[in-house]
Specification:
The complex is a heterodimer of chains A (about 375) and B (about 300). In chain A, about 45% of the residues lie in helices and about 10% in strands. Chain A has 18 helices and seven strands. In chain A, strands 2-1-5-3-4 form a five-stranded mixed beta sheet. In chain A, strands 6-7 form a two-stranded antiparallel sheet. In chain A, helix 8 (about 185-195) packs antiparallel against helix 9 (about 205-210). Chain B contains 13 helices and eight strands. The two termini of chain B are about 35 Å apart. The chains are: A alpha+beta (about 375), B alpha/beta (about 300).
Chain lengths: ~375, ~300
């Protein structure tokens, strides 16, 4: 048994007062959970302390909350580990003034708070989930009996199926913090669950919908917060990147210029080996400008928007010289290295193999070199 | 200490002051850098988003080039670190997949071998703390950054996902900047945005979301009393410094906070003049930092 202090962000709407902090002393084994600590505080100190929970086993997805600023499940976070993190944070920021640091517990972010640790899942999470049509849209007549699919073709979507709708990823999302209209990690992971389903007949329509929404797949800022927040390994950001990959394969244009940006980036590295930033800006907004000007939606606005930044850069010498701003001046890799990069492109663009660690797992032990050889010769 | 050095595209492009200050600081620290001039872009996650096998092969090529030197590899960009670690995780996970990627590279006389000679690829921050050592760094300090209030800004790619980035072995990687600031004699400023996203990845896709992110973090740091920010990521630098006047318009407030690259902050403490570190190239003036450091130390 050990003593811990939980510093809980509380809000009691009936009081007419704003949110406030309250500390609770709890006494429990370090291997028990932060949720166990909260329930002890409710039993012993204040019966009005409100928290949603049910299974206490990371299955029901009810107890999403922020612990020391990290979004996750209260029942899946050991209180001893939470204490260690609190101490590390206090010591790093120099706020450790001799007192034992407290475990900070807050309601989930990016959602309205109903009471204490209970958030309104409806107005953000569930609304966004419904936004992506989270059910199967099969083509044609339903078969007389069950759908028959290759087992392998369903394995691809098992990762996104593992979602328990706890909202931890939504709580952690840094894009949504800046743009509340972003469809968000939970809903987009759910969208991939149907885009990747071989029985679904509306794959292309779904991709158009998700790419053409200005707050859709190209609004993700690639911060990995949802990957660390998810208690079930869904890695929502990875699913968003797979949606982008599929949308790209279908050549879907989007108002955010996301596809053009990606295509321009990929093309520049093939030609130059390293990034030519000026060419990237130009090609993202107006691809193929050297041949014929074909500005995309928002291209003029985007290019104009970057002019003040470029002028300031020239003034301070940040952009080394005027020629550096001329797309295409950037040098290629030296001595045949560029041809090596091109050869890799030719090969990989044909193969396009995807290796998913979630599904395939990591090898525990490195096989002996001779074992690998044997495998190869017998294959 | 001798290292295979991958500077990344941005330090050769829009943030040449990073490349230059790294060269200066490495020399002062006694670190010899062997630049990988044949290596290619890490893909910044964008190539992986397009074609995972392409990104993995390109980065395996870079690792193979580093392994040819027999040296450990160093990068100076959080984004390179994240994108390369992502590919390395897949390459290291499965010998058959690695063999498939190496089959392509073998035609170029290259091969990436998992764990060869204890191969590691670390950014300057990780290397400074884990391999160079903070005690040794402290010995090199000739001008302690006394009185300088510094806000750390990590860049997402070196703090998440923890499982991929070696936090099991090195759990304090997300507080190294604070440790370095203290060793250099500076004062750590705590503010909300230190481990949040600078917004750079969506600057061409959703300019407002992007600039609201960088503007908010810069504003929060100013409110917390920071004299400057320090970042190990040149892409964060672009959004926090180069775009700062534009970000100020989006968040509708005055900003004006110097943003230093990590090698610049270290370089200052090792005795470099701001000009030697290319600080005049920044968009947000570094004048205040220089004034602070020029003031007589009263403590």
């Amino acid at each position: 048994m050990a003593e811990y202090t939980l510093k809980v962000r509380r809000y009691q709407p009936e009081s007419g007062e704003g949110p406030y902090w309250e500390q609770f002393q709890v006494d429990l084994d370090p291997t028990l959970s932060v949720l166990d600590g909260l329930l002890q505080a409710r039993d012993r100190e204040d019966g009005s302390l409100s928290v949603r929970c049910s299974c206490k086993a990371a299955i029901c997805g009810s107890c999403g909350m922020k612990i020391n600023g990290q979004s996750g499940l209260g029942c899946k976070t050991q209180i001893g580990e939470a204490q260690e993190l609190a101490e590390k944070k206090a010591s790093a920021s120099g706020t450790g003034n001799g007192e034992k640091p407290t475990i900070v517990v807050e309601p989930m972010g990016n959602m309205p708070v109903i009471k204490d640790l209970i958030t309104d899942m409806e107005s953000t999470h569930w609304t966004k989930i419904r936004r992506v049509t989270p059910w199967l849209l099969p083509h044609g007549e339903a078969p007389e009996r069950e759908y028959v699919v290759e087992p392998e073709s369903m394995i691809d979507i098992t990762q996104s199926m593992a979602c328990i709708q706890c909202g931890a990823c939504v709580s952690s999302c840094l894009s949504m913090e800046a743009d509340p209209d972003f469809i968000g990690p939970a809903a987009l992971a759910k969208a991939y669950r149907f885009v990747g389903d071989p029985r679904d007949g509306e794959t292309v329509e779904r991709l158009h919908d998700l790419a053409e929404d200005p707050h859709g797949i190209y609004d993700c800022t690639h911060c990995f917060s949802c990957i660390d927040a998810c208690p079930k390994g869904v890695a929502p950001m990875d699913q968003i990147m797979r949606l982008r990959r599929k949308a790209g394969e279908h050549g879907i244009e989007d108002p955010n210029n996301g596809h053009n940006h990606e295509a321009a980036f990929v093309k520049i590295i093939e030609k130059k080996g390293t990034l030519d930033e000026s060419l990237l800006l130009q090609e993202s907004f107006a691809p193929g400008v050297k041949g014929k000007l074909k500005p995309t939606k928002g291209a003029i606005k985007g290019l104009l928007g970057s002019i003040p930044t470029a002028i300031r850069g020239l003034k301070t010498g940040k952009m080394r010289s005027l020629p550096k701003l001329i797309p295409g001046v950037h040098p290629k890799l030296p001595d045949g290295a560029q041809d090596e990069v091109k050869a890799i492109y030719a090969h990989a663009e044909e193969h396009r193999e995807e290796f998913n660690i979630y599904i395939k797992g990591e090898e525990d032990v490195e096989p002996e070199p001779d074992e690998i050889e044997t495998e190869e010769t017998t294959a | 200490m001798k290292l295979a050095y991958w500077p990344g595209c941005v330090s050769r492009g829009f943030t040449t002051e990073l490349h230059g200050s790294m060269a200066f600081t490495a020399e002062k620290l006694g670190i010899e850098l062997v630049e990988l001039d044949r290596a290619n872009c890490c893909g910044a996650g964008v190539i992986a988003e397009h074609n995972q096998e392409l990104a993995d092969t390109l980065n395996a090529r870079t690792f193979a080039l580093a392994q040819q030197t027999g040296l450990a590899m160093m990068n100076i960009c959080s984004t390179c670190q994240g994108a390369q670690s992502e590919c390395q995780q897949r390459l290291d996970a499965d010998s058959a997949y690695r063999a498939h990627i190496n089959e392509m590279l073998s035609g170029q006389g290259l091969s990436y071998e998992k764990g060869k000679d204890g191969f590691t690829n670390k950014n300057f921050l990780w290397l400074l703390v884990e391999d160079y050592g903070l005690d040794k760094l402290a010995e090199k300090v000739v001008r302690p950054l006394s009185g300088l209030r510094v806000g750390p800004f990590y860049g997402c790619y070196v703090v998440r996902p923890k499982e991929r980035l070696g936090y099991d072995e090195f759990p304090d990687r997300d507080v190294y900047l604070e440790q370095v600031i203290e060793v250099l004699g500076g004062e750590v400023v705590e503010y909300d945005g230190a481990r949040k996203c600078c917004g750079f990845p969506v600057i061409t896709m959703n300019r407002e979301t992007s600039l609201r992110q960088s503007g908010t973090h810069v504003g929060d740091a100013i409110d917390a009393g920071a004299d400057c920010l320090v970042t190990p990521c040149p892409l964060c630098h672009l959004n926090l410094d180069m775009q700062q006047p534009e970000a100020a318009k989006v968040v509708n407030r005055d900003l004006g906070l110097a943003v230093l690259h990590l090698p610049q902050l270290v370089g200052l403490a090792l005795g470099a003049e701001p000009k030697q570190l290319g600080m005049s190239r920044h968009i947000a003036s570094t004048g205040w930092v220089e004034e602070r450091l020029a003031a007589p130390v009263t403590a």
